[in-house]
Structure prediction request, 477 residues.
Amino acid sequence: MALSKKTKEAFLGPLNANNPVLVQILGICSALAVTVQLKPALVMGISVTIIVALSNVVIALIRKSIPMRIRIIVQLVVVAALVTIVSEVLKAFAYDVAMQLSVYIGLIITNCILMGRLEAFAMTNNVKDSLMDGLGNGLGYAMILVMVAFVRELLGSGKLLGFQVIPQWCYDHGYSNCGMMFMPAMALILVGCVIWAHRSINEENK
Amino acid sequence: MKTDSNVYTIVYATVIVVIVAVLLAVVSQVLGPRQRANALLDTQKQILVALNQDIDNCKNPAALYKELIRDTFYVCASPEKEFFNADEALAMPLAEAKKMAAKSGAPRFFTAVVDGELMFIIPLKGQGLWGGIWGYVALREDLNTIYGINFGHESETPGLGGEIVTEDFRSRFVGKHIKDATGELRSVAVLKVGKVAPEGQEQVDAWTGATITSTGVNDMLATSLHQYYFALVGEEAMNKANELREQYGCWSAAACVPAEENVESNNQEEE
Prediction:
């Protein structure tokens, strides 16, 4: 399947040059809340990706019929319905994951990336492009979450995905975990570091 | 189509809300039984963890639960008594007790037989930092020694309060006693490293960095165990435990308990 240039751009753009977290500074709130450990960050990233993609598709399908004056409400209803359905399905078929996710369900509905993509992209583009845009933005967001959570879990508790990676030997020789990594402020500082690196790399490419 | 008119807007809003409502209702109805089965299985698994069963390598936890758990008892509050009466609680037929329990919201507990030994499993309920916490504690037949414990939480901070579910934290409770030397119920204190519990009460270390969640665990143990006061403390409760042990055909661990205690206290002295 050959994708048009625009479709490709809709998918690849948000992964780098137009990343929702790094460039548009959206979805920062949840980046703080769920990145203490890698596992919830992964689950959150995947869930947001699925929900952005699905809601983008739904809104793109009905975009021509939506009355302008209540479009935001319609978008919200679609997002809330999708989040609820996904959570119900998870509870029935992946109970453990649903328990992990339950805390973040509210965060997904209010995630600024969702409303941002629906309003800025899905309302004016066709279904295929909207799907790619949703996937791209979701993955772009997940990518940053995973990066931050990787550093926070590794330095904060010496573990990755719950497994001890920093050997006991290091602790015996005076190494200790960085308690600061548990603070939300460290997530913000780490996101800042990633943005810094991202900007300077992109600067060189230009 | 003119999508700006008032009539269109109102009709559109109504239609979309109805569609979403129907969709959600159908999803909830269709998936409901499956979700309830999952929730039940989850509770059973939590109880099995409290009984120190390795559920990760267990292919059929539901069958294991059925094999180990013998009875459910409802602790019933009598209107004229301030506290629950152990004898009533234990002797009452299940159906009747269930009715009374439903009326009074009284707590229940379970009995199990693990490796031929009688166990009492007491559910715990409390409040952490961000939301509810809960757990199950398995007591040995002396109604005093903790055999195993399990915790769950709604939304404690991952890496901090969330760590109460880990083996590292749970294992701190194993072998602790909930009563003092006189047989009075004291619960187990969860205290910051360096703090010492009042005389007669045993203690475990709180999870570092999770002060409020640890205090929540401490309070949860104390309040939940006290709800079962008359099923745990006193001669009647002990007699009932003996009766149940004979009924289930369990061996008596009473002879072994002091020996284990000696080993433990020796270790502590060495440390």
